[in-house]
Amino acid sequence: xxxxxxxxxxxxxxxxxxxxxxxxxxxxxxxxxxxxxxxxxxxxxxxxxxxxxxxxxxxxxxxxxxxxxxxxxxxxxxxxxxxxxxxxxxxxxxxxxxxxxxxxxxxxxxxxxxxxxxxxxxxxxxxxxxxxxxxxxxxxxxxxxxxxxxxxxxxxxxxxxxxxxxxxxxxxxxxxxxxxxxxxxxxxxxxxxxxxxxxxxxxxxxxxxxxxxxxxxxxxxxxxxxxxxxxxxxxxxxxxxxxxxxxxxxxxxxxxxxxxxxxxxxxxxxxxxxxxxxxxxxxxxxxxxxxxxxxxxxxxxxxxxxxxxxxxxxxxxxxxxxxxxxxxxxxxxxxxxxxxxxxxxxxxxxxxxxxxxxxxxxxxxxxxxxxxxxxxxxxxxxxxxxxxxxxxxxxxxxxxxxxxxxxxxxxxxxxxxxxxxxxxxxxxxxxxxxxxxxxxxxxxxxxxxxxxxxxxxxxxxxxxxxxxxxxxxxxxxxxxxxxxxxxxxxxxxxxxxxxxxx
Length: 502
Ligand code: PMP
Prior knowledge:
Blueprint: E1 26-28, E2 38-43, H1 53-67, E3 76-79, H2 83-95, E4 99-104, H3 109-117, E5 121-125, H4 130-145, E6 148-149, H5 156-173, E7 181-184, H6 190-202, E8 207-213, H7 218-221, H8 254-261, E9 267-271, H9 273-287, H10 293-308, E10 314-319, H11 341-348, H12 375-387, E11 390-394, H13 399-411, E12 416-419, H14 430-442, E13 449-452, E14 455-458, H15 460-469, H16 471-478
Parallel strand pairs: 2-10, 3-4, 3-6, 4-5, 7-8, 7-10, 8-9, 11-12
Antiparallel strand pairs: 1-2, 11-13, 13-14
The chain binds 4'-deoxy-4'-aminopyridoxal-5'-phosphate.
């Protein structure tokens, strides 16, 4: 194996995040696959949004800006299995457009959260209505509200971008002649149409292999896609639910159909869900390449093609996205949160920091001095407690303090929080003085301490127990504080699970 050097090209600062889209690395596979071929992957996770769809997002918006179809500040709307939405969300954030995404509820939760984190609104559609349902919703919203629909499934800007960028990167990386075999799946078919036409024109020897889920042979079926008068696709009869999010929606997209019609496909390669998962896990654990399920599926297809490929073939598989958006899916099913038997064994192999052996007792402390505090600080604590019906003395980022805050917020209990360790409280050690005074008043050194109606309740667990035994209900009622009792039935549930195993 070659020795690794960290290459360092002198790069100018980028004008914006958008300048980091594309130009993703093509990487040799060293430890997987048969020896008689050279396997490569194009790792689209290097795009800033973690997937190949950043390319489309930028292309769609810039094409619509150029044509005048998209007006400054106009809302953009799109139906997406997630990656397009994440790409659009980051392009919209960088360019200042509002974005609404429609997405079937069945796609992973990470995708929703990422889009919302990037400032987009996500409108879920029922899983039962599949891809055609989320598409219809996006069209309806665009029509009713005058929003710009990005139309990834038929927008020529999608394929054009792949011809201009992805295809060029592939052709150039293989010395202008392209790889011997190029393997891709398809969702919109943007990658397939855009890359294949450049390969056909410039690298006629390159064989193009299209992977499909083994239970969804939609292109292989040869059954034509039915569309209505407006070109809207009906659900295809060969569609079945499958594992490869982002691949094969329940219809053949216009761009995918164009590629097939143009003779872009030399061979179809069916891939099973299990082969996809295994390939994604192997790429991560044996090559250090962390990618998603459709990437695993494309690589699994490449491995199958490699078996019978001529010796010396250079085979390139597309890896469309990062594995990080699959943590809540079956891809991570075998990855536990707790230590495995093997990990426990490693833990037990040395004496330190173990769960099965009590920590050594601390050296006996010198007799603690009787708690004392400054009278001014004691008066301040008294004033604060008298002034507000519900007061909590907290540390800004302490888990117990946060749990009480979350509980009160969920139940709609208004409270006054004194953050003893906040930066502003460090002036003249005010926080420390108040903490000392609180220790004397509460008779306990721990934080948080909670007061209701001027009376001391106790710490976090005392407060939780108070909701369980009804005393908190009485205290809050006496102090005239209404609250939503349905949110306080499992107060310990607000603690992180490592503190309170559920
Ligand atoms: N894999 C994933 C994870 C995707 O999100 C997509 C895009 N839908 C694809 C593959 C397929 O790419 P394309 O839309 O260019 O066919």
